[in-house]
From TrEMBL:
Gene Ontology process terms (BP): dTDP biosynthetic process; dTTP biosynthetic process; dUDP biosynthetic process
Function: Phosphorylation of dTMP to form dTDP in both de novo and salvage pathways of dTTP synthesis.
Gene, per the UniProt record: tmk
Protein name per UniProt: Thymidylate kinase
Binding-site list for ATP: 10-17
Matching HAMAP family: Thymidylate_kinase
SUPFAM superfamilies hit by this protein: P-loop containing nucleoside triphosphate hydrolases
CDD domains: TMPK
Keyword Zinc: no
Cellular-component GO terms for this entry: cytosol
Length: 209
């Protein structure tokens, strides 16, 4: 339904932010109109919801509450920022979207893909990315990367068990098999420039940038 809506997904430390920053530079160099945003967050209301969800002190948060908060943040961000930018003809590049909810809450939290899809269908009302890059990386390697990055604040989800993070990756792999037309799996266990070259190749092929 939507065009030029591109999302990046992956487990912790997969390199999404790094690749999105390079893409921003590349599109700016080519004078291609685009916005770069993230979930949960991207606008004031959704950033506030983000801080509630990711607060390390909120250890009693129920899994369904968590899922609903992600969906609420998504709805507001979509209406306030994503849809207007798409309507202006801009590329929208978003760090995480509905597939994060499916992999984290649906699969790893075991709420179920169908229930998570159902609450998110209400939130997104038909707006789906037309391309999703899934940066695939061994979970331990990703966690090691974020542990090395002393500037990154540790959040509540980071503190989940190793088996939870392994399930997140399994969830993503299931989603990629389910939606191979939309979700492009990228081997993130390579150098930044190799990963970026791969992403750019797919974007050039699809959007003739
Ligand atoms: N291909 C790579 N090889 C080695 N290190 C990398 C690579 N890509 C990113 N990194 C480093 O790994 C850390 C995590 O990268 P980044 O913040 O881009 O990941 P992310 O997917 O956005 O993480 P999260 O969603 O968990 O915040 C950073 O310190 C970054 O410099
Ligand atoms: C959108 C979304 C995110 N999450 C999780 C994934 C990460 O652990 C955090 C976000 O932190 P990041 O450093 O910005 O990647 O939230 C989730 O569980 N469900 C979602 O829908």
């Amino acid at each position: 339904m939507t065009e030029r809506f591109i999302t990046f997904e992956g487990p912790e430390g997969a390199g999404k932010t790094t690749i999105i920053n390079k893409l921003q530079q590349e599109l700016e160099n080519r004078s291609i109109p685009a916005i770069f945003t993230r979930e949960p967050g991207g606008i004031e209301i959704s950033e506030k919801i983000r801080s509630i969800i990711l607060d390390k002190e909120h250890t009693t948060m129920d899994g369904r509450t968590e899922a609903l908060l992600y969906a609420a943040a998504r709805r507001q961000h979509l209406v306030e920022k994503v849809i207007p930018s798409l309507k202006e003809g801009k590329y929208v590049i978003c760090d995480r979207f509905i597939d994060s909810s499916l992999a984290y809450q649906g699969y790893a939290r075991e709420i179920g893909l169908e229930d998570i899809f159902s609450i998110n269908s209400f939130a997104v009302d038909g707006y789906m990315p037309d391309t999703t890059f899934y940066l695939d990386l061994d979970v331990e390697a990703g966690l090691e990367r974020i542990n090395q990055n002393k500037d990154r604040e540790v959040n509540r989800l980071d503190l989940e068990t190793l088996s939870f993070h392994r399930k997140v990756r399994e969830g993503y792999l299931i989603l990629q098999e389910k939606f191979p037309e939309r979700i492009i799996k990228i081997d993130a266990n390579r150098t930044v420039s190799e990963v970026f070259k791969d992403v750019l190749y797919h974007l050039q092929r699809k959007y003739k940038l």
